[in-house]
Amino acid sequence: MITHIQGRLTEKNPTDVVIDCNGVGYFLNISLHTYSQIPDQENLKLYTHFQVKEDSHSLYGFTTLVEREIFRLLISVSGIGTSIARTMLSSLTPDQVKEAIASGDVARIQSVKGIGSKTAQRVIIELKDKILKVYQYDESTLEMNNTNKDEALSALEVLGIGRKQSERIVDKIVANEQDASVEVIIKEALKNL
Question: How many domains does the chain have?
Answer without folding.
Answer: 3
